[in-house]
Amino acid sequence: MQIKNGIDLIEISRIKKSYDTFGDRLLNRIYDKSEINVFLKKSLVAKAPFLAKNFAAKEAVSKVLGTGFTKGIRPKDIVIKRKYGGPEVELKGKAATFAKEIGLKHISLSLTDTNYNAAAVATGIFEA
Ligand SMILES: CC(C)(COP(=O)(O)OP(=O)(O)OC[C@H]1O[C@@H](n2cnc3c(N)ncnc32)[C@H](O)[C@@H]1OP(=O)(O)O)[C@@H](O)C(=O)NCCC(=O)NCCS
Predict the structure, then answer these.
(1) Burial code of 34-68, b = ≥16 C-beta within 10 A, e = fewer?
(2) Bridge partners, residue 78, by sequence
């Protein structure tokens, strides 16, 4: 078994500014439908932190993959799900195909935020 971490830290105001400028275009370019549905139900104050935490998570997972957003791996193919015990990751498209190729079996994810920043740590577990 091998383990690899990915971390990301982001200013919430940066994501808020993007959303205020691009609105649905930002949502549809970066986030999966399931994430957008959760976003739409959030209160106004919780909206930007939610987008920022999910974006940090996508970048953290892209570092576990070791690709960043290259090789056709798109932020919207790294889907963040909020579950009772904590967030989970579902990979789609090229991200899922690539994860299989490199033997990535599971990703554990942890999120946090303050009034200003959002951060994510992703830990990938690889088959030996
Ligand atoms: C990996 C990636 C996600 C990091 O993005 P970033 O926010 O600019 O950079 P961060 O400060 O969070 O991280 C930089 C660190 O990540 C690590 N890193 C860089 N590329 C990496 C990769 N492919 N895999 C794992 N870690 C990587 C490095 O340690 C780097 O620090 P260093 O240069 O001092 O060694 C970036 O390569 C990328 O693909 N960015 C695309 C961003 C983008 O297009 N955003 C718009 C939405 S589509």
Answers:
(1) ebeeebeeeeeeebbbbbbbbbbbbbbbbbbbebe
(2) 91
Residue of 8, 17, 69, 78 to mutate, ligand 1, most atoms within 8 A of C-beta: 69
Domain ranges of the chain: 2-126
Q: In tens digits, what is the pLDDT along the chain, a chain of 128 residues?
A: 899 999 999 999 999 999 999 999 999 999 999 999 999 999 999 999 999 999 999 999 999 999 999 999 999 999 999 999 999 999 999 999 999 999 999 999 999 999 999 999 999 999 97
- Selected from 3.40.50.970, 2.60.320.10, 3.40.720.10, 3.90.470.20, the CATH number assigned to the domain covering 2-126 reads 3.90.470.20
pTM tops 0.85, yes or no: yes
